[in-house]
Amino acid sequence: MAKYLLVSFKTCPWVQRAAIVLREKNIPFEFRHIEPDNRPDWFLAISPHKKVPVLRIDEKVSLFESSAIAEYLDETIAPRLHPDDPVERAVNRAWTDYVPTFASAVTATGYAADEVAYAAAAEKIPAAFGQIERALEKQGAGPFFNGAKYSLVDAAYAPFLQRYRFLDRVKPLGTIEKFPRLKAWADALLARPSTHSFPEAEFEAMYRANLKRRKVYASQFIADVAVAAE
Question: Which residues contact 14 (CB under 8 A, 6 or more apart)?
């Protein structure tokens, strides 16, 4: 089997997406974390955009961008996470393409510099949640996006639903409860072991420490925490 190295910042959701796919396929891989403010020369040499994630294969090939990594792994290693039906597969890819828009709306409160920006960001969450709620209504009974079978769509959304949960526990947003299918989906994804690169409490502490370090508006609602590595 090929040798895989996944290069990451500890709290990057896009890397988490790639790691989830690797774990879902039971692929052994090395997880190497680097500091975002001190990117080593060896990393800059293998990352065309100087960003994570990078999946290094056999110390020869570097794949980048989480969607490309996920698609490559799904095409080359069983079990296949994409649906077999080409129409269903296209629908899945379309909803995966919506992830950046969804992520921006759902996590923007975490980056808001002041109360006005926080409130404006929070107002955008219901629209994003509503889009996914309607998609889930068309997809079946769950617990996953395609029903009983886990897919690349699940892997793509799990990191951002996890961050919504973290933000909701910092300062309650009270939004996801209004979208029962989405909430059930989030609960199923966060209960799945593949979602987690770290124990959830440890990872939440890292996330909170990052908010404190950035001095964003939400950080004032976090009790003092030990600063974890990025």
Answer: 52, 53, 66, 159
- Determine the residue type at 215: K
Beta carbons within 8 Å of 144's beta carbon, 6+ residues apart: 150, 151, 154, 185, 188, 189
Which pTM value belongs to this model? 0.94
User: How far apart, in whole angstroms, are the C-alpha atoms of residue 195 and residue 109?
Assistant: 22
Residue 143 to residues 77, 90, 181, Cα–Cα distance (Å): 24, 20, 9
CATH entry, 4-76, from 3.40.30.10, 3.50.30.10, 1.50.10.20, 3.30.2020.30? 3.40.30.10
What CATH number labels 86-195?
1.20.1050.10
Q: What is the pLDDT of residues 87-131, one digit of tens each?
A: 999 999 999 999 999 999 999 999 999 999 999 999 999 999 999
Residue showing tokens 């396929």: 25
């769509």: which residue's tokens?
153
**Residue 168: which residues within 8 A CB-CB, separation 6 or more?**
174, 175, 176
Residue 73 in tokens:
């792994």
pLDDT tens digits for range 163-208: 999 999 999 999 999 999 999 999 999 999 999 999 999 999 999 9
Distance in angstroms (rounded) separating the CA atoms of residues 134 and 230 = 35
Residue 51 in tokens: 């960003």
Q: From start to end of the chain, where are the E strands?
A: 4-8, 30-33, 54-57, 61-64
- Strands 61-64 and 54-57 turn out to be antiparallel
